[in-house]
Structures are given as structure tokens and as C-alpha cells.
Amino acid sequence: MSITKNQSDITSGKGMQTKWKYMLLCLGLLLLSIQAYSQQTPTGHAAIWQNVKNSWSMWAERDLDGYMEYHHAGYSGWFHDSPTHRGKKVTRQLLEDQFQRLEVIFYEANLIDIKIHNNAAIVHYYISYIVRDSHEKDYKRTFRRTDFLNQTEEKWQLIAHHGNLVE
After folding, report:
1. What does DSSP say about strands 120-132 and 103-117: parallel, antiparallel, or unpaired?
2. Are 109 and 52 contacting, i.e. CB atoms less than 8 angstroms apart?
3. How many whole angstroms separate alpha carbon 35 and alpha carbon 29?
């Protein structure tokens, strides 16, 4: 008789309440872990992507010093129109000229993928923009871009990039 009583306890009353409490606890823990995973952390995907977007915002505002802060001292980038890579110093000189001649009308960055390896991140994305020259002529460009970032002192910095024009 005690077996029958225990079976009935499991299918109704206290046994079912225990099952529901256990299922709700598991669901709660699952939701908490999903929320924790999606939080922006210094080493997380969201923080890295925000860093890339912030650097483009500085570029669009023609804030050369702010933009160059995102570049590591040993930065080396390979631009679509260059036969070889450029370091930080040459990049700064070219941007000084560009910022005097061009105004950013619009820009948009669209993330494709981020891979994190210890203190390094690889960010693949599209960047599109429209710039206007001193003759009021607009130029639209879209690039596929890969940025290589390194984390130092809780800060992600661009150490290299490669981009090519999408036609």
C-alpha cells in the first residue's frame, strides 16, 4: 500500500508541486545564464563591437586624436588602394589630409562576425559611408573589412586591418 500511496503522491499533490518547483528553478537558472552570457564585458563580443563602432564615430566626427587612440602604437593597416601596408604615422598624415578635404555625410557599420582568442579579437564587418568633397560632390563607398584588435589594460586597440572595396 505504501508503494501505491507514493505513486499517487508523485502524480498529484506534493510530488507534482516538487516537479514544478524543480522545473521552474531550472528555467530560472537557464534564463540567468543566458542573461549573464549576453552582458557587455570588457572581453565580450558586445564590448569589442562597441569599440569598433566608437572608432568609426570618431572618424565620422573628424576627431583625429580620438580616432587614433583606438590604434595601437604598432598598428599596420592595408588599405584597399595601397600596394602595401601603412603604419600609424602615415595613417595619421593621410587622415589629416582627408579630414580637411572631406565631410562625412553618412556611415553605417554592419557586423558579420567576431572571433576572440585570449587577448586578441578578429572582427569582420561591412562599413558603408558617403563623403562630400569641397566641390559638393558625394562619394559612396562600401568595404568588407577585417580588424585585428589586441586588449591591453582593459582597452581594445586596433593592431592591424585589411579592407577591400565592394563594387
Report:
1. antiparallel
2. yes
3. 10
